[in-house]
């Protein structure tokens, strides 16, 4: 009996050690980021987060298809009096000019994903440039100011993508917190576990993100209770020390 018990304890000890060893790696291995916010060598980098002691956060959303979740998201943000930044595809904007107008009228900031939301890292340079230019033209056609921010579709980018975006006067934003699609409770738990001063929380507001409204209704009140304030990317980054990373 004593031998069996000790063997079990050895298994528990080994498993606990592996969990403790692995957890820091999982926690700190946030996805890469890089802008058109430049580094000391004046090379484009993407904005990861802002270095600040103030309890400031930014909520950002991707929108490339659907209208139900984005409508509910706008209502939820309105309830909490929060301004956020929305990255939309040019194709979606053309199909839903009324929703683009609703985002703008509620004092949210508009950025772009590219025209169809295709992964830039698998496209030729001229295709990326064409995608950005076409999306900017959509904004012009719909009487919106030229966008200042780009979120690389699917979060995929490389140095060439950053240079092309910079050439189109677009600042690339990646963010520091990326909750995976899932239940509202799971997404909220991810946000609340990771949120810290200066973080940029990136979420999908497409119709596949069914848990998003619930996630916001759980996480936002808790973060506000903890003293956090929510900002657009422009407001968060204004005059602040930004944190950037290479691709």
UniProtKB/TrEMBL annotation:
One of its GO terms (biological process) is carbohydrate metabolic process. Gene3D superfamilies: Glycoside hydrolase/deacetylase. InterPro entries: Glyco_hydro/deAcase_b/a-brl, NODB_dom, Polysacc_deacetylase_ArnD. Signal peptide: none annotated. One of its GO terms (molecular function) is hydrolase activity, acting on carbon-nitrogen (but not peptide) bonds. It holds the Pfam family Polysacc_deac_1. Residues 55-231 form the NodB homology domain. One of its GO terms (cellular component) is membrane. This is Peptidoglycan/xylan/chitin deacetylase, PgdA/CDA1 family. The lineage of its organism: Bacteria, Bacillati, Bacillota, Bacilli, Bacillales.
């Amino acid at each position: 009996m004593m031998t069996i018990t000790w063997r079990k304890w050895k298994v528990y000890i080994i498993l606990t050690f592996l969990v403790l060893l692995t957890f820091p790696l999982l926690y700190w291995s946030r996805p890469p980021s890089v802008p058109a916010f430049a580094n000391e060598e004046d090379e484009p980098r993407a904005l990861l987060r802002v270095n600040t002691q103030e309890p400031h956060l930014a909520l950002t959303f991707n929108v490339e298809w659907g209208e139900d979740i984005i409508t509910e998201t706008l209502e939820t943000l309105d309830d909490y009096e929060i301004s956020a930044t929305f990255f939309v595809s040019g194709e979606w904007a053309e199909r839903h000019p009324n929703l683009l107008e609703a985002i703008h009228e509620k004092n949210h900031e508009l950025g772009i994903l590219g025209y169809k939301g295709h992964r830039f890292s698998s496209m030729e340079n001229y295709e990326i440039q064409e995608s950005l230019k076409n999306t900017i033209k959509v904004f012009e056609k719909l009487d919106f100011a030229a966008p200042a921010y780009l979120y690389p579709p699917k979060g995929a980018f490389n140095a060439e993508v950053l240079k092309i975006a910079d050439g189109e006067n677009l600042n690339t934003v990646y963010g520091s917190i990326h909750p995976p699609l899932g239940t509202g409770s799971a997404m909220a738990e991810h946000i609340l576990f990771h949120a810290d001063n200066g973080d940029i929380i990136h979420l999908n507001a497409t119709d596949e993100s069914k848990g998003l409204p619930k996630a916001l209704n759980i996480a936002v009140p808790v973060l506000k209770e903890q003293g956090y304030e929510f900002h657009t990317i422009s407001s968060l980054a204004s005059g602040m020390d930004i944190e950037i990373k290479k691709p």
